[in-house]
Amino acid sequence: MSSVRGQLLVATSAIGAGPFWRSVVYVLDHDEDGALGVILNRPSEAGVEEVLPGWAAWVNAPGCLFEGGPVAMDSALAVGVVTDVGSRPIGWRQMSGRVGLVDLDGPEPQGGEFLGLRVFAGYAGWSTDQLEVEIAEGAWIVVPAQESDLMSPSPDLLWSEVLRRQRGEIRFWATLPDDPAMN
User: Fold this and answer.
1) Is residue 78 one of the residues assigned to a domain?
2) What is the DSSP string of the chain?
3) Count of structural domains within the chain
4) Tell me: the pLDDT tens digits for 128-150?
5) Which of 3, 71, 91, 123 could link 106 by a cystine bridge, Cβ 3.0 to 4.6 Å?
């Protein structure tokens, strides 16, 4: 399987519960050693200002900390979409296109450097071949990402919005009830 870096993983009904239920994961890295991503549609109750004073001014609405995944929930990582990939702001490391990781220990951004910024507690991680097996088993649908997915002002609607914009039969997943047995 080729790398799915820079794409979205959209959870199917094969994932019936837990942190990945109806999740949309942006894949930051994927190679022969495994994969790393962040769940885009799990806003938490905690504001960024509570955890990282000073950074709240730079994050997009809803301005909260997001639950990036079940791994290392006691650590934070930031994902930023830059306005110009050629500018390479200090502390930004490109992952795919204009999307990259932002060093939260570095200087705060300058005005106009980022189109969007989100802070995540934890991340989603897969060991060697684990993600490939889950995709083959039908747990995930791999779809192209849009930069706006990383900055959605309505993350609770992201799962259905991403599915609705797909072509073919995939778009019908958006109409699946929360409990497929109730269909």
Assistant:
1) yes
2) ----TTEEEEE-TT--SSTTTT-EEEEEEEETTEEEEEESS-EEEEEHHHHSTTTGGGSPTT-EEEE--SEEEEEEEEEEEES-TTT--TTEEEEETTEEEE-TTSPPPPTTSEEEEEEEEEEEEE-TTHHHHHHHTTSEEEEE--GGGGG-S-GGGHHHHHHHTS-GGGGGGGG--SSGGG-
3) 1
4) 999 999 999 999 999 999 999 99
5) 91
Report whether 119 contacts 75 (CB < 8 A): no
Average pLDDT over residues 74-88: 92
Of 64, 77, 174, 173, whose CA–CA distance to 125 is shortest?
77
pLDDT of residue 176: 74
Q: What is the mean pLDDT of residues 159-164?
A: 95
Residue 17 located in a structural domain:
yes
| Pairwise CA distance, residues 155 & 171, whole Å | 18
Which residues span the domain enclosing 22?
7-178
Give CA–CA dist 130/35, Å, rounded.
8
Question: What are the phi and psi torsion angles at 169 (to 5°)?
Answer: -65, -20
| Domain at 118, CATH number | 3.40.1740.10
Q: Is residue 36 in some structural domain?
A: yes
Residue 92 CB partners (closer than 8 Å, separation 6+): 80, 82, 100, 101, 102, 103, 113
- Global pTM value: 0.93
